[in-house]
Amino acid sequence: MIPDRGTNPGYSRRSPPITSLAGRYRFRSSINIAGSSKRVLPGRGRGSPAEDIYRLPIVFSQIRRRSLPFGSRLCALPMFFFKAVQKKYQIGGVKIGGQPGETPTLLIGSIFYSRHKIVSDERAGIFDKDAADALIKQQAELSDKTGCPALLDIVGSTPGAIKKYIDFVAGASDRPFLIDSPGVDVKIAAAEYAQEAGLSDRIIYNSVSIETKEPEFDALKKNGTRSVILLAYTKKITSSADRVAVVADLAPRLEGMGVSNILVDTFVMDVPSLTPSGKAAMEIKNRFGYPCGSAAHNAISTWSGVKNLFGKDAVRSADVVANLMPVILGADFLLYGPVEDSAYVFPAVFTIDTSYRYAYRAKEYVTL
Fold it and tell me: Would the pTM count as exceeding 0.90?
């Protein structure tokens, strides 16, 4: 158990040296501190590497500069290096996957979602084209500035509507896009339409889960869909192990159907699920190497308490923190919420990516 504020030596004014910390916090995984002769030795606990790694911020917060040789300074949040060979994809010219710091984080904004103010008729797919074009251009400009690739998650409520949205987005940009809907029939119709329109190489199907039925799997195979988001949904929303089990079960089936690009969404529904989602992503990358991410913004969009407690302005800061959490833990992509939020999500993620890029080159990471 992580010590609380009253007993954690990290809150004292004087921090113990790293050698004493290695004795106090025992890790199952061997943790190398790049550039240093010091080593945090593995312990005999039964925790997984990802469970152990959640203690690292406390440990590293206690390491003062005098504790390590010159040139071996550490920040409070170390970058991780996963042991599995990381799967790297190129979807419609966009790269995704790899070790943290190796590839910029893929950022995905939702458009035409339920009650989106630019949509006047959700069932008919009638929307303000000028407003939609402005939002797409804003995200594209931020992508150019930061180097973070940007995609759109197209959400439709009817087959007719989503076909119109696909036509518009495909014409406004040459990048891939996600097809998404609460209705399975709408997603299948979108996949079929993409194949007819010659856009199969540009779509990412969002998503399949343990609740996906046979007709949907059959449609994916029939349409030759190659890029799919695997949602690690579980009714045990606070269990990281259940999320990992979903991937172990479904990923081989998708690969057997010809799906070559599997992106794992580790399922965030609320604030308590943020941590098991992040932990599951670390476990999945460390064990299977699949690119992982999540719709972390769900944690805040479903939490009315933050606005009631702190006011409307606090929602944005909470949303930024929620979105950054998976990125700090090594996520490859982020479904950051409404595309309007790109203005503050991109600079925040760019900050982490920049730090991790330099750390990756210098091999300043913690090996799991």
Answer: no
